[in-house]
Amino acid sequence: MKKFLVLVVLSGMLSNLTFAQDLTFGAKAGVNLSTLTNNDDYDSRYGIHFGAVAEWEISDKFSLQPELLYSGQGYKRDLEGRTLRGKIDYLNIPLMASVEVMNDVSLMAGPQIGINLRAELDGEGQEIQRLTVNDVDASVVFGIQIDVDASFFIQGRYALGLSEVRINQEEKHSVFSVSMGFYFD
User: What is the pLDDT of residues 34-93, one digit of tens each?
Assistant: First the structure.
């Protein structure tokens, strides 16, 4: 009976904590500058990203920010006077921990899993070719967020790939991104 009462009291306390937390949903979009590491022949490729974001406020200074984003990544390469573009696009799922370090300025970090949506090589005067890439990409992401007001924010991030992108290559993603977003009321 004592264990049951303790369980009921703890459950009540945890449920109050859960309901006390703020959960806000929003959207964001921005640009990427990406390439693959360990290959000096590759240049950066511009792409876009957009998707849904949520913010779960744990305390006044700490929150978790899960996201679901389409992200256009890859690389560019000049070969014999032609520009080739490796288009490697993902459905990225980052989970960012955010700590407010100054008023309206937060530092962020967390893991990211990407599910490959497209992998092709496109270039001047050639047919599109399929690139052989791994289906899942793992990265660690670091960034900063500036809250312009209660619902509008700007972010800058860097994603460092942890897993091999192309099969049997030592190449990993390197992605800088800048975003703007808003939270719904």
Answer: 988 887 778 889 999 999 999 999 999 999 999 999 999 988 888 777 888 889 999 999
Range of the domain at 27: 22-183
Residue 110 neighbours by CB under 8 Å, 6+ apart: 65, 94, 95, 96, 97, 140, 141
138-149 pLDDT, tens digit each: 999 999 999 999
State the pTM of this model: 0.83
Residue 5 lies in a domain: no
> Which CATH number covers residue 146?
2.40.160.20
- Domain assignment present for residue 98? The answer is yes
